[in-house]
Amino acid sequence: MGGDIVPGTDPYVPGHGDAAYGVDHYDLALTYRPSSNQLRGEARLAVTTRRETDRLRVDLHHLAVRGVTVEGAALARDAHKGGHLSVVLRERVPAGTVLTVTVRYAGTPRTIRARHLGDAGWEELEDGVIVASQPHGAPSWFPCNDRVDDKATYAVSFTAPAGYVVAFSGETRCAKRRGASVTWQFDQTHPMAPYLATIQLGRYVETRLATGAAGTTPITVLHPAGLDRDAFAASFGRQPEMMRCFGELFGAYPFDGYRTVVTDDPLEIPLESQSLSTFGRNHCSAEWEEVRLVAHELAHQWFGNAVTVRSWRDIWLHEGFACYAEWLWSEASGLSTADEWAAHHHARLAGLPQDLVLGDPGPELMFDDRVYKRGALTLHALRRTVGDDAFFGVLSSWVREHAGGSVTTADFVGHAERVTGSELAGLLAAWIDAPELPPLP
């Protein structure tokens, strides 16, 4: 029976995920005590088997399983060891079988460490919580099939002490107080990979930048009181302008709303999640190095969250696109043009080691800055080759045709050729498949 498990299907995140099934919907009911960092939960996973099997492997790290039930098939046994919950059925079921797996669990959540990837997942702040699930941290707080290509919808109930504000990567439906606790209810109706699911908890106030009236996307910021007004206006306050700019270039914003969380603690880098981005107080600044990150995380909603890679080797389809959006925002806001940024970063990359293959950088280099900048340069080379109208037609149709799905580099190359009617495989291969940096067209 051991051959029925297909573990670690993505070599960039070994030991995560099971290709024998897919999750269609997660229903999570969670209760959290910040004073002791104690989490209690019940997760209902609506799954469909993708192949004949008699077992499912679910990812869940550092938390204790209190009980497992299965609807749609008879459960033989379950075992939780080494961050994996093995759910064994009495009989094999065919591909296409619909099951509901319910897991009750509890414990003290913490980050997950992986060689070459560092820490990811649940992290306590001075007075609150952030969850950075990319790329392997989702199992730190809920049982899941932790695959980048396994998208599902979500319903989440999260109970926490009154006085805290809770945010999830989805729409807030209500917050009901009972005694000293508040239960927050959220939905994410757009398909979402586990690594894009997050919970943020803190003592925040809310600033609404756009209400959703007159066809605009609702944009809100949760932040600590006392942020510098001028710095806020110059960074997070410009998100409605960024939204309009990117909407014109990439197509309509792909989700129901957008929320930014600004923690009172400083963060080294912002955190990406679907329809929500998380920053530290240190990112509230008029300096370009901080403003560009605000644009970068917003751009991920199109490239990375709506359109998501099928495997992590193609991460440039997320990071290169979001980096290029920084240059586009710079140009739109009257700063350096995309041409100027491209020339600057091309010269810088030319002086660095030529040992990175953009289309398969390896887990050690998947977050290397060269992936971001060379990915952006690849897009600029494409833009210079086909012209602005064709280039932005490629980007907007890419999102329109693939939103909610999973893609590969080959998909993008084929899409660009089809939309432009041009032979582009050779041009793009030089940027994506070879380590040497090509000249800009």
Automatic annotation (TrEMBL):
Free-text cofactor note: Binds 1 zinc ion per subunit.
Reaction(s) catalysed by this chain's protein: Release of an N-terminal amino acid, Xaa-|-Yaa- from a peptide, amide or arylamide. Xaa is preferably Ala, but may be most amino acids including Pro (slow action). When a terminal hydrophobic residue is followed by a prolyl residue, the two may be released as an intact Xaa-Pro dipeptide
Primary localization: cytoplasm
Keyword NADP: no
Domain Peptidase M1 membrane alanine aminopeptidase: 243-431
Pfam families: Peptidase_M1, Peptidase_M1_N
Active-site residues, as the UniProt record annotates them: 297 (proton acceptor), 372 (proton donor)
The protein's name: Aminopeptidase N
Biological source species: Nostocoides japonicum T1-X7
Taxonomic lineage of the native organism: Bacteria, Bacillati, Actinomycetota, Actinomycetes, Micrococcales
